[in-house]
Amino acid sequence: MNIQNTDVLVIGAGSVGSMALWQLSKREGLDVVGIEQYGRVHTHGSYVGESRVFRTAVHEGGTYVPMIQRARTLWRELEAESGRNIYAEVGCLSIAPEGFADFTTALGTVRDFDLKHRTLDTEELRREYPQHRIQDGDVGLLDAHGGGLRPEVAVMSALKIAEANGARLFFNTSVIDVEERPNGVMVRTTQGAWLAQRVVVASGSWSSRLSPELDDLLRLQVLGLTWFMPERPELFVPERFPAFLRDVGSVHFFGAPSFDGYAFKACTNPEWPVYRDVADVPKHHTREELIKIGQRAAELFDGINPEPVRESVHHCAYTPDRLPVVDRNDSGRVITIAGLSGHGFKFVPQLGEWAAQLVAGEDTTIDPRFALAAHMERLAVTGPYTGGGH
Ligand SMILES: Cc1cc2nc3c(=O)[nH]c(=O)nc-3n(C[C@H](O)[C@H](O)[C@H](O)COP(=O)(O)OP(=O)(O)OC[C@H]3O[C@@H](n4cnc5c(N)ncnc54)[C@H](O)[C@@H]3O)c2cc1C
C-alpha cells in the first residue's frame, strides 16, 4: 500500500474543517492536507442553506460570548482575505412574550457583556417591523452586531485561501478509519493512506463513524429550512428586515432576510426524532409538515404566500447540553471538534483557530467543559440528547 506523509491532515472540509484548513495554512513550514468525502462545497453538510443566523446575544447565556466576539473578528478577516461578502451585519431581532426565559437570558447577556443592542416594546415592534405580525405582549431585542452569515461562501472562501497558501485538498475521497501508530496517525481513505503527525477530525454529523468514543454522546437532530414569498419583497431585504428569532407559545421560528430578492427564510422544526446515523435522516419535509409550517408562518408574517417556495432538510450532531466537543487526545496527535448542536456556525472560525493552536501544542482559551472527558461525566448524569433543541 502506498502511504503518503504529511504534518497535519484535516478530515472533513465543511464548516469546522474549512476554517481549520484556513488557519493551519497560515502556519509557516507546515504541510497541510484536507480530505473531504464530497466535492468542494456540497449539499450534504450541516452548513447548507444560504444563510446562518449570527448573534452575539446568545440565548444560552454568556458561555459563547468571548468565542463569538473572536469569531466576529475572524469573519471580517476571512472577508478581507477572500474579497467576498460573508457576514451581513444587519442585526438580529429576537421577538418573544415579555418574560420568556430565553429572551430574558439574552437580555442579561447583552447587558452583562455590554453588547450593542436595543430593546423594543410592542408598539415599537409594530411600527418598525410591519413584516412581523406582533402579538399583544411581545417585546423585542435587536442585537446590533447580529445578522446573517453566508455559509457556502464562507466554506468556499476558507478552502480557496487554504489552497492558495499551499494546503493540499482532496475531494470525493472518504476517510475509512483512523489509527494511531508509534510514528504518527494512519488515515486510510478510499484513495490510499496517509501517515500524519497530527489529525483534526472535523467530520460533523458523521463523527461517530470515525470516532466510536463519540457514539454514546452525539445524536443527530433533523433541522428543516423553508423560504416564503412575500407580497412585498422590498420589505424583506437585508436593509429593512434583520435576521430573527421568534417565540410564540411553544413554537420557535428563526430566519433571515431575502438574499435572492424574491423569498425570505422562515423556519420552524416539526417534532422530529433523533437519529444516530446520517443515512437514516429524512431528506425532505412531508406535505403535511410543509402545510403546517406555512400556516404558522402566515400567522407570524404579514402578506406571505403560505406555500414554501424552497425547502430542505438537514442534520446536525448534538450533545445533551449543546456544548461542542473540542479536545486533543492523550498523545496530542488527534484533535476532535464535533457536536456543534445546531448553533455552531457563528463561531466556526474560532474553532478553526483553536484547531491550529491545538495542533501546535499552544495554550488556548478553550472552555474546559468542551473536553470529551467532561462531556462523558455529564452524559453519565443526563443521558444522551433526546431532541427538541432548536
Ligand atoms: C438547518 C440548520 C440550521 C442551522 N442554523 C444555524 C444558525 O442559524 N446559526 C448557527 O450558528 N448555526 C446554525 N446551525 C448549525 C451549524 O450550521 C452547524 O453546527 C455546523 O455547520 C456544523 O459544522 P461541522 O463542521 O461540524 O459539520 P459540516 O459542516 O457538515 O462538515 C463536516 C464535513 O465532514 C465531511 N466528512 C464527514 N465524514 C467524512 C469522511 N469519513 N471522510 C471525508 N469527509 C468526511 C462531510 O462531508 C462534511 O463536509 C444550523 C444547522 C442546520 C443543519
TrEMBL record:
Pfam families reported in the protein's UniProt record: DAO (PF01266)
GO molecular function: flavin adenine dinucleotide binding; sarcosine oxidase activity
SUPFAM superfamilies reported in the protein's UniProt record: FAD-linked reductases, C-terminal domain (SSF54373), FAD/NAD(P)-binding domain (SSF51905)
Major enzyme class: oxidoreductase
Keyword terms: FAD, Flavoprotein, Oxidoreductase
EC assignment: 1.5.3.1
Ranges for domain FAD dependent oxidoreductase: 7-358
Cofactor section: FAD
The keyword Lyase is assigned to this record: no
Family annotation (InterPro entries): FAD-dep_OxRdtase, FAD/NAD-bd_sf, MTOX
UniProt protein name: Sarcosine oxidase
Organism of provenance: Leucobacter exalbidus
